[in-house]
Amino acid sequence: MPRPNLVRLIARSVNSARAAAATTMRDEAARAVEALPVEETTDVYEWARTLAMRIAMRALFGFDPDSGHAAEIAARFESGLGFHAREYPMQILFGPGTPLAKLRRDRAALESLVGAEIARRRRRGADGGDILSALLAATDGEGHSLSDRQVLD
Predict the structure, then answer these.
(1) What SS3 class is residue 24?
(2) In degrees rounded to 5, what are phi and psi of residue 98?
(3) Which residues contact 122 (CB under 8 A, 6 or more apart)?
(4) What angle do CA 69, 73, 76 make, to 5 degrees?
(5) In which element (H, E) is residue 120 found?
(6) What percent of the chain has pLDDT over 90?
(7) CB 74 within 8 A of CB 63
(8) CA-CA to 129 of 20 to 30 Å: which in 34, 59, 70, 89?
(9) Are the C-beta atoms of residues 136 and 121 closer than 8 Å to each other?
């Protein structure tokens, strides 16, 4: 699929899932606020980080954030993002024990986990009302859909 068509296809797909993502954000935020303890100290960073990850798991992938599967993906996702918080000299080091090597391992694990979900949904035709489902359902004017590699990227 030529790149301009691909970009339009992805934009249309993601736009169609935005309302569902907004609902997910609202629902998860309301749940998180209701769970705040009264007259107790709350670690706001941890609270916000947990809320953001729950929203990402539901809105992006349609996963139940309380499942072990979502927890594994969230841990790899967060670990991979942590690479960008490292000092720049640490980011440019090469070798098996470096932050870059860890980022590559995290990405490979995420691609494996999400790739398995893509395969499962393609087999079952499942629609989770999330961004992943929108990308899998998207077709261009000629009926071509995104490849698994394109969805993963």
Answers:
(1) helix
(2) -90, 165
(3) 136, 148
(4) 145
(5) helix 99-124
(6) 31
(7) no
(8) 34
(9) yes
Cα distances from 68 to residues 31, 57, 64, 110, in angstroms, run 20, 12, 9, 14
Q: How many residues does the chain have?
A: 153
Q: What's the whole-model pTM score? A: 0.78
Which tokens hold the place of 135?
A: 């990308």
Give 145's strand partners.
Answer: 139
What is the distance between the alpha carbons of residues 59 and 44, in angstroms, rounded to a whole number? 22
Task: Choose among 114, 131, 136: nearest CA to 58.
Answer: 131
- Buried b / exposed e along 63-90 (16+ C-beta atoms within 10 A): bebeeeebeebbebbebbeebeebeeee
Q: pLDDT category, 142, cuts 50, 70, 90?
A: confident
Segment 70-92 shows an average pLDDT of: 86
